[in-house]
Design a protein that fits this description.
Elements lengths: L1 E6 L11 H13 L3 E8 L1 E2 L2 E5 L9 E3 L3 E6 L6 H11 L3 E5 L4 H14 L2 E5 L6 H4 L3 H13 L6 E5 L2 H11 L4 E4 L22 E5 L8 H8 L6 E6 L5 H11 L6 E7 L6 H5 L4 E4 L8 H8 L4 E4 L7 H4 L2 E4 L4 H13 L2 H21 L2 H8 L5
Parallel strand pairs: 1-2, 1-7, 2-6, 7-8, 8-9, 9-10, 11-12, 11-14, 12-13, 14-15, 15-16
Antiparallel strand pairs: 3-4, 5-6
Helix pairs in contact: 2-3, 7-8, 10-13
Protein name: Glycosyltransferase
InterPro entries: Glyco_trans_1, Glycosyltransferase_grp1
Pfam families: Glycos_transf_1
Length: about 375
């Protein structure tokens, strides 16, 4: 059985790292009958060293889901030599990197893999998307140039989770870059649609995501400030960028009294379904998602979505499951919010059914096992 060594800054029970750790959890659960997975991660919440995880053993390999092994390293323990020793002890067939910038979880293991002649699969996780590169562009451009100058991209097999990411990788590293498409593995549980009353001239919106510029809460808040009818908008998620959240808070403070905005804090992945079911629409005009776990979760929960066209979830209006709107057309996003506000029960119920059907279609048409088998085939 092929041994896959996964590097990720965050892994369950951590829950503040967005969709990536959830993808990895689902991968280990779904495909451990084919691959032997080992996960190297940290013992605290994503980018929060003081928030230590509970119920784990640190600095030693432990079984996870009876299907793999994980080691939660402390900040005091992690280091170049420690990573080298762990790789030597596992002798993996593949090192699977998630992200693009982190030293101990991308640069160091990538360098060591090249030294040890171990095959590398790297999932940039949307970080090469134009929308992501447009945030702090100078710093990212310099990093990319150094990455290329050091020839770090040579002999990497890239994991793209949608067709856009294939284009992003090839645009960044050239048309000869080897890119394999394998969709993210979501939670495949089918949930019943929880009924919710939807009257015309009522609207409950929700966003569940990291509080970061990429998620574009600001655009939602700006559009809501232009409306003169009652809307409830709740925001959930870990605060990733304090300056960005402060900007959001300043705008929230100026909103008219008819717009009710609440920040509800972070949630655990298992809470998403019950929370989404309390609202009419999920909204997130993101600058770019290579999958969008919470978008899938909203659809699967039978909650239509209002999102940008920068995700794999496209043609939503044709499927009767919401709207995917170009970011350069905020007027259309505003119109969608107004239409959602005016919507009555019958039309809403139809959209709710269409949303879940779209999620189920994704599951039915996906070939997870075959795709990941191709991804992790040795590229000697």
């Amino acid at each position: 059985m092929k041994k896959i060594l996964i590097f990720s800054e965050s892994f369950e029970p951590a829950y503040k790292g967005g969709g990536v750790p959830q993808s990895l959890v689902n991968l280990v659960k779904s495909l451990s009958n084919i691959f032997r997975f080992y996960v190297i991660t940290l013992n605290h919440e994503y980018r929060a060293p003081k928030e230590l995880l509970e119920g784990i053993e640190t600095n030693q390999w432990t079984d996870v889901y009876n299907k793999g092994k994980v080691i939660y390293l402390t900040r005091e323990t992690i280091g170049f030599q420690k990573i080298k020793n762990l790789i030597h002890s596992i002798q993996p067939d593949i090192i699977y990197l998630n992200g693009f910038h982190e030293f101990y979880f991308v640069i160091a293991p990538l360098y060591l893999a090249k030294q040890m002649n171990i095959n590398v699969v790297m999932a940039p996780r949307g970080l090469l998307h134009p929308g992501a590169l447009a945030i702090k562009p100078f710093k990212k451009k310099m990093y990319l140039e150094l990455f290329k100058m050091a020839n770090m991209h040579n002999k990497i097999r890239w994991h793209a989770t949608d067709h856009q990411e294939i284009l992003d990788v090839k645009k960044t590293f050239g048309q000869k870059a080897e890119v394999i498409l394998a969709n993210d593995t979501p939670d495949l549980t089918t949930y019943p649609i929880t009924p919710i009353i939807k009257k015309s001239k009522s609207l409950k919106l929700v966003t569940i995501s990291l509080l970061a510029p990429k998620k574009n809460h600001l655009l939602v808040l700006k559009l809501l400030s232009e409306l003169n009818f009652l809307i409830e908008y709740d925001i959930y998620g870990h605060i990733y960028d304090q300056d960005y959240w402060l900007t959001c808070q300043n705008l929230i403070a100026t909103l008219p009294s008819n717009i009710k905005v609440n920040y509800r804090g972070g949630i655990k992945p298992k809470e998403a379904y019950s929370i989404l079911s309390r609202y009419h629409f999920f909204i997130m005009p993101t600058f770019g998602e290579n999958f969008g776990h919470v978008i899938f979760e909203s659809l699967n929960a039978g909650r239509p979505v209002i999102i940008s066209d920068k995700t794999p979830w496209r043609n939503l209006e044709n499927f009767g499951s919401g709207w995917d709107i170009p970011l350069e057309r905020p007027d259309l996003l505003k119109e969608a919010i107004i239409e959602a506000f005016e919507m009555e029960q019958k039309q809403f119920d139809s959209l709710a059914e269409g949303a879940q059907k779209m999620a189920q279609r994704y599951i039915k048409e996906s070939t997870f096992t075959e795709d990941y088998n191709t991804l992790f085939i040795s590229n000697d």
